[in-house]
Design a protein that fits this description.
15% strand; globular; alpha/beta; seven-stranded parallel sheet
């Protein structure tokens, strides 16, 4: 049996990157997965991959940062599988890399809504189903940028710090309902997103792209970036019975780099 056998898990931002890898990982661990994202084509690919591996999954093509969209994601899980046990708030856009004087109000609200408002809304609608089930686990995919900051990424840093604060508050609020709430704070995770961040930092700082990339690797004692599989493995553990007494924590995944 897998870590998540017979669990129903929502994974937002499931069309690519960490969300896609997490959907596949959770399915291999026995979960029935509600894969949610805005891109119908890419989300369909994720669901097809889950099913090809023998797992169960349904797609919910919605914007998790809208009230109607977040409710529709939870409703899709209830309709398909009858309950919700687990929510992974992974949706979110990194937003632009630019000085604050150039960071527009639209940049701010887009980034904060995609990362933080989506997590709040999905939690809001999933919690009643978890209370009805008598248990639950929420994992917020935050970032080390929310703990120690990152220049030229004011919206992203603020949103991820907000996710961490929300994690602490909800853990205190929901413990009496047997619901755990934790955050994972990755450092640099290999993939398309970090490539865009590196390019943005190189542009705004006037540096060579490979120099920026190597600096991220060099400051990690293990001399490597993390992977989407690293994040997914920890999330699966936190959603399992093995972590039933772990709540209100923000766990760094940084290849050994100090968290602060």
């Amino acid at each position: 049996m897998g870590l998540l056998t017979d669990r129903v898990a929502i994974v937002t931002g499931a069309s690519k990157g960490i969300g896609r890898v997490m959907s596949l990982h959770f399915a291999r661990e026995g979960a029935k997965v509600v894969c949610a994202a805005r891109s119908e084509a890419r989300l369909g690919e994720t669901v097809a991959l889950v099913r090809a591996g023998g797992g169960e999954a349904v797609a919910s093509v919605c914007d998790a940062a809208s009230e109607d969209g977040a409710k529709a994601i939870v409703d899709a899980g209830l309709k398909a599988f009858g309950r919700i046990d687990t929510l992974v708030n992974n949706a979110g856009d990194g937003g632009p890399t630019k000085p604050i004087q150039d960071y527009t109000v639209d940049d701010w609200f887009y980034t904060v809504n995609s990362c933080l408002t989506s997590a709040y809304l999905c939690s809001r609608f999933a919690v009643p189903a978890m209370i009805a089930a008598g248990r639950g686990a929420i994992v917020n995919i935050a970032s080390m940028a929310g703990r120690r900051g990152l220049a030229y990424r004011v919206g992203y840093c603020s949103a991820k710090a907000g996710q961490i604060g929300m994690t602490y508050g909800l853990a205190l609020e929901l413990g009496r309902h047997n619901i755990t709430v934790n955050a994972i704070a990755p450092g640099a995770v290999a993939g398309d997103r970090i490539d865009r961040v590196i390019q943005g930092q190189a542009d705004v700082r006037g540096m060579d792209v490979e120099r920026v990339r190597q600096s991220l690797v060099d400051r990690a004692p293990l001399r490597r970036m993390s992977t989407a599989e690293d994040i997914s493995s920890l999330a699966a553990f936190l959603c399992s019975d093995h972590a039933r007494n772990i709540s209100g924590q923000c766990i760094p995944v940084t290849a050994g780099e100090p968290a602060s």
